[in-house]
Amino acid sequence: MTRRVLILAHTGREESMLAALEACVELHANAIVPVMYADELADLTGYLGVSGVKMEILDRDVTLADIELVMVLGGDGTILRAAEIVRDYDVPLLGVNLGHVGFLAESEREELIQTVAAVVQRRYSVEERMCLDVIVRVAGKVVAHTWALNEVALEKGNRERMIEVVTEVDGRPLTSFGCDGVVMATPTGSTAYAFSAGGPVVWPGVEALLMVPISAHALFAKPLVVSPSSTLAVEVLTRNGAYGVIWCDGRRTVDLLPGARIEVTRSPKPVKLARTQQSTFSERLVRKFELPVQGWRGPTPEQAEPPTTQLPIIKPPKPKTPLTKPAGGGTPGGRLAELPDLTVAPPATAYSGTTNFYGEDHS
């Protein structure tokens, strides 16, 4: 059976086109047919010339149903575009980072040959990433229905004024405030826009939904992490007349008039990402953000499971001299203790209620 790999590249960048040509040559040399879009192949051959590699055109020679894997050469934006393309197909994405941080990418540019070799030898695993299902309602009617892999971001439409919103979790209102926007994200998107807005980093293996306010003018406007089965909602209030706009992964947008409502739930359809490396998310976090880890010694290897340590029980201290209560509840003779006289003596000249200014006589 013929194996086919779709190559998606940012053909507006020379580095991306060179990487795409290199990947196509390596795949062809290993009896795998590289596939590209017609316009991207035209950009590639027009800039670099004819490579002599036999290639097929997507939607002309083959369809996405014939593709084994999509190799994405670019940054996270290119990978999000690829996720949009294969949304209705069971095709995994394998990203090679040519951008800046590239959290969605599996490998870097200098590892391209090793990545292609892993594809040739089928040395890759596939993991599913949670997506968001997004519904926009106006006056109770659905006006838009879309999805997102990273996040859906509600932003203010007027630069000169904040947008007034009220947030909701599981059908109950939480709080209202003025803000620049609200980000609702997946664990995959926790290192993207939600991270920039001050949200927490959530490991991809954690199933949860995030809600992160953007520059909220409120005392209680903290990032929220809720159950993946919860329903998040944000309503655009009408009290200041400001309108908003939502962006799904920075690619799909819907304008929101005052009174609009956004409902976000877990999508039943995940995105599949191919992995050629077995590194942990912690290692990827350190590598992508260049976090300082100098001085880390790591856990001590144990030959066997250590027994539970018997720690001493701390008891409350006892008074050195026992406290005794005298008979009769007062002094030793049974009399009540005399209280000191706490009366404050009046001043020598009492205030008469009339103030004399500059020696005036009001008698």
UniProtKB/TrEMBL annotation:
Names of required cofactors: a divalent metal cation
Enzyme active site: 76 (proton acceptor)
Gene transcribed to yield this protein: nadK
Organism: Arthrobacter stackebrandtii
Documented EC number(s): 2.7.1.23
GO molecular function list: NAD+ kinase activity
Binding, NAD(+): 76-77, 81, 150-151, 161, 180, 191-196
Keyword ATP-binding: yes
Protein's job: Involved in the regulation of the intracellular balance of NAD and NADP, and is a key enzyme in the biosynthesis of NADP. Catalyzes specifically the phosphorylation on 2'-hydroxyl of the adenosine moiety of NAD to yield NADP.
Signal peptide: none
Annotated transmembrane regions: none
HAMAP family attached to this UniProt entry: NAD_kinase
InterPro entries given in the database record: ATP-NAD_kinase_N, ATP-NAD_kinase_PpnK-typ_C, NAD/diacylglycerol_kinase_sf, NADK
Primary location: cytoplasm
Sequence similarity: Belongs to the NAD kinase family.
Annotated keywords: ATP-binding, Cytoplasm, Kinase, NAD, NADP, Nucleotide-binding, Transferase
Localization in the cell: Cytoplasm
Protein name listed in UniProt: NAD kinase
Pfam families: NAD_kinase, NAD_kinase_C
Catalytic activity: NAD(+) + ATP = ADP + NADP(+) + H(+)
Keyword set includes Thylakoid: no
Domain of life according to the entry: Bacteria
Residue span of region Disordered: 295-363
Lineage per the UniProt record: Bacteria, Bacillati, Actinomycetota, Actinomycetes, Micrococcales
Compositionally biased region (Low complexity): 299-313
